[in-house]
Structure formats: structure tokens, C-alpha cells
Amino acid sequence: MIPSIMGVLNVTPDSFSDGGRYVDLDAAVSHARRMVDEGADVIDVGGESTRPGAVAVSIDEELERVVPVIAAISGFGARISVDTRHEQVASAAIDAGASIINDVSASLWPVAARRGVGWLAMHMAGDPASMQQRVPTYRDVCREVGDELVAHANAAAHGGVAEIWIDPGIGFGKTAQHNLELVARIDELVATGIPVALGVSRKSTLGALCAQADRTPDRPPAPTDRLEAALTMAVWAMAAGVSLIRVHDVAAHVAALGMAFERLNAPNHLQNGLRAG
């Protein structure tokens, strides 16, 4: 099946991919409306950058960034998730209209259970400020990340959370090789039976892949110029059974995944005809 699309709405001045573009309420609301019109199933609102090396913001500042936006877009017809690692922010976002906690700390399931909302648990080694400075050594990154996520999901399910996703956390305390292996073996996470989410859009791993393909390893493309690689990985993830894909370019992903799904599920005679033509 075609994965649900989670459109990214960063209301931060320092996001790695679009920092500052949507800090204004009107700009944020307009972008959310555009993503819904393009086919986003979920709008993911984040008020604290979690890029490598990001400096933490106060809870009050995060609240000021996300709550007005969530309240303003709550009637747009898509679900709203709040990208946070803080209980107070998650609770206030739910009050404003969010129905999913996108939790980079994988620790907020008690809030999700108490409030009856969905919970997305992402794997992160360390915290954003230091996660790429002290990357763990994994014997088997897929197995170890998977085991940790399954343990979180089981705890949440036993604690009363009814809707759970797990996300391997591409770029969060991992090397480029770790990231590529996690994507290549994403079917192993899918095999756990827990819905899997994946976010690779515009990340540095895609930049490295593009630079390698272009034979310019010292000059990776800017985050906004990594779309082709993101679409390729999204199609791969869909074929592996991923349930939710977090993206910046909603229209392109909706179109690419729709076309790929039709092609992958075409009758044999149509496949043969396409190959022959």
C-alpha cells in the first residue's frame, strides 16, 4: 500500500533545510494549507530544531512557536503531529489540535497514553547538540536500533497507547554507513509488525549519495537539491512496507509514490508490455 505522507512544517529559525521560512504565522499556515492540498495526510509541526549541533530552546519559546500554528491549521482536514521531546509542549499541542506526538526522545508515550493520541518513537543516540560528535559503535546497527525501538513500542502498548509507529532515526547519532544500512534493511523493522515511519528527506546522507553519483564528493548538493535521492528512497521504503514517510516536498512524493505503486502492482501483461515498449 502507499504510505501515508507526513509533511514537514518547521517553525524554527535554524532548521537545516528551511530554517526561518515559516517562523511567521501566516507563512506557516499558508504552507500547511499548500501541503494538505498537495496530499499530505499529516502535518508535522516542530518548534525546536533537532539538526546535529542544534542548541536547545526554552519550553516557553517552543510553545510560542507551535501552539498558535497548530490551532490555526486544526481545521484543514489533515492530522497534526507535534515534533517535540518535551511533555509540556506535547500536552499543549494536543490541546490545540494535535493527535500525534512525533517523539525524537522516544520517552513521551505516557503522555500519548493519557491523552489518547498516536505516538511515533524515533531512535536517537544522545541529544541533538552532541549526537554526531559521539556516534555509538554498533555491532549490528539494524538489529540494535530495532531491538530498542521494539522495546519502546511494547512498553507503550502495554501502557495503553493504541497507535504507534517506530522510526530508525536516520541522521540521529549515526554515521552515513549506519544510515544507508538502516534504509537498505528497513524491511527488517517492517517485519516486527509495528508500523514503521521513515524520514530521509533533505538529509546529509542523501547529499553524500548525490555527490558520489555526481563524482563530486567534496561538494554535496544543498538540502533543497536532494529531491531525486529522497524520491528514490521513498519508493524503496514503500516497496519494503513502510507505513509513513516524513517529507518536505509533498507533491513530488505523492506523485512518485502513486506512479510507483501502480507500476509495482500492474498486471503481468501490462508489465511485459511496458518492458517491451
Explain what this protein looks like in three dimensions.
The protein has 277 residues and is an alpha/beta fold. The chain has one domain: Dihydropteroate synthase-like (TIM Barrel, Alpha-Beta Barrel), CATH 3.20.20. It contains eleven helices and eight strands. It has helices at 25-38, 59-73, 87-96, 109-115, 141-158, 176-184, 186-190, 204-213, 227-240, 250-264, 268-276; strands at 4-10, 42-46, 79-83, 100-103, 118-122, 164-167, 197-199, 244-247. Strands 6-5-4-3-2-1-8-7 form an eight-stranded parallel β-sheet. Strand 3, helix 3 and strand 4 (100-103) form a beta-alpha-beta unit. 44% of the residues are buried.
Classified in CATH, the superfamily is Dihydropteroate synthase-like
**Percentage beta strand:** 5-15%
State Rg: 18 Å
Task: For the record, give the distance between the C-alpha atoms at the N and C termini, rounded to a whole number.
Answer: 27 Å
Q: Tell how many strands the DSSP assignment holds.
A: 8
CATH topology: TIM Barrel
- Describe the main β-sheet briefly: 8 strands, parallel
Number of helices: 11
Helical amount among residues, as a percent range? Answer: 40-55%
Indicate the mean pLDDT. 88
Structural class: alpha/beta
Low-confidence stretches: 269-277
CATH architecture: Alpha-Beta Barrel
- The total domain count is 1
Give the class-level CATH name. Alpha Beta
Q: For this entry, what is the oligomeric state of its chains?
A: single chain
Q: What does the overall shape look like? A: globular
Strand order of the largest sheet: 6-5-4-3-2-1-8-7
Give helix and strand order, one letter per element, not per position.
EHEHEHEHEHEHHEHHEHH
